[in-house]
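Technical annex, item 7. During the second reporting period the consortium partners agreed on a shared format for inverse folding records so that results from different sites could be compared directly. Each record opens with the tokenized structure and is followed by the designed sequence. A conforming record, contributed by the partner at site C, is shown below for reference.
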């Protein structure tokens, strides 16, 4: 690839730093400057903490008259929400565990960081996230409750607080079983299909943004962080030649800074599925630009040799999701349908003969793929 193409890729990716410096060139916080430098060096990574994490950080108690700079303290009142604990921080804002003063409902309260107030794009993106959460009706998105503005103009969003762990944390230990991957991909595809039907593309699908909410009665996962999502009916907050997203999970057309759509989310989900099955993403390199170049020019390494126990239907579908041409990728609805059928087939009972007692009398046993193995009866003529 010509050197100038790599240079353009680097310039485009640097545009979408997780933290933008103030537009007037004034000083921003030390943490913001360090994040900008890390982003330009290709080493920045979003914190693992999110609105869905049950692990929390205690914040010293303080009165309602706390200074507005920095993280707010326990006891601070935002509208009708009393802050209890700091959950974490993302690229643009602080996330708190708060409780409604009247209903006592616990919420995740997301507030734009003060150093981001000078960045119109950050404010717009946070308000867009509130709009998307309110408009896309699916239990796989955090439930939207309320939003507003602080006295200094910073937006805040009150949303569902769900206990769970990021998929990234689950995948960090080892590759996942194929049936677990099928369950996760089916659930994420269902959420994406609902968003795509409303003209919304996530654009930054990755393991950190998929929360596993085991045992949740509403839905087993949540797809979070819709701040850079693109709505077809809304205003565009990125330039046509601006690459936005996380390099490891970016579709080729996204890496070029071209138009994005549902096909980008499908590619990102394919990367997530590949990584979940094998323990590593298909493209790794020392820098973000090198990863983007591989997305553009190299086919993903064959999946079957890296997870030989995975069913062919799953392997074939993931490889289609990673097609360089977005026209060859399946839709999120097709992914959900195909894997739903595959999951049903793998869980369907089948008949076999099994030994139940010492007399070795073969009896019919209905079994599924997850049933513990039993010794098969053998008809030996000499017994």
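Designed sequence (site C submission):
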């Amino acid at each position: 690839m010509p050197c100038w193409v790599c240079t353009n890729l680097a310039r485009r990716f640097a545009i979408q730093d997780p933290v933008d410096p103030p537009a007037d060139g004034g000083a921003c916080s030390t943490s913001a400057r360090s994040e900008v430098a890390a982003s330009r060096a290709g080493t920045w990574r979003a914190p693992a903490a999110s609105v869905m994490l049950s692990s929390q950080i205690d914040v010293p108690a303080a009165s309602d008259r706390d200074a507005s700079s920095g993280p707010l303290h326990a006891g601070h009142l935002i509208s009708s929400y009393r802050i209890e604990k700091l959950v974490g921080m993302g690229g643009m804002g602080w996330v708190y565990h708060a409780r409604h003063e009247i209903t006592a409902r616990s919420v995740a309260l997301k507030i734009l960081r003060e150093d981001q107030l000078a960045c119109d794009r950050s404010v717009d993106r946070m308000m867009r996230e509130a709009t998307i959460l309110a408009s896309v009706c699916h239990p796989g998105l955090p439930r939207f409750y309320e939003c507003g503005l602080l006295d200094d103009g910073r937006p805040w969003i009150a949303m569902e607080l769900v206990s769970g762990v990021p998929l990234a944390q689950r995948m960090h230990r080892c590759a996942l079983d194929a049936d677990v991957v099928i369950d996760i991909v089916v659930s994420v595809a269902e959420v994406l299909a609902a968003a795509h039907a409303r003209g919304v593309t996530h654009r930054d699908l990755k393991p950190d943004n998929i929360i596993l909410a085991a045992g949740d009665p509403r839905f087993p996962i949540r797809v979070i962080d819709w701040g850079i999502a693109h709505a077809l009916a809304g205003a565009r907050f990125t330039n046509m030649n601006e690459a936005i997203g996380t390099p490891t999970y970016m579709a080729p057309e996204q890496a070029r800074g071209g138009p994005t759509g549902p096909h980008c989310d499908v590619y990102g989900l394919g990367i997530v599925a590949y990584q979940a099955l094998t323990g590593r993403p298909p493209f790794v390199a020392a820098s973000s630009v090198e990863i983007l170049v591989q997305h553009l020019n190299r086919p993903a390494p064959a999946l079957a040799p890296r997870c030989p126990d995975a069913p062919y239907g799953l392997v074939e579908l993931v490889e289609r999701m990673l097609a360089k041409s977005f026209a060859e990728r399946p839709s999120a609805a097709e992914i959900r349908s195909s894997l739903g059928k595959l999951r049903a087939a793998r869980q369907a009972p089948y008949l076999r003969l099994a030994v139940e007692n010492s007399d070795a009398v073969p009896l019919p046993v209905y079994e599924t793929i997850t049933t513990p193995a039993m010794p098969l009866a053998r008809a030996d003529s000499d017994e």
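The domain at 3-160 is CATH 3.30.200.20 (Phosphorylase Kinase; domain 1). Residues 1-29, 42-69, 233-241, 370-383 have pLDDT under 50 and may be disordered. All partners now use this format for quarterly exchanges.
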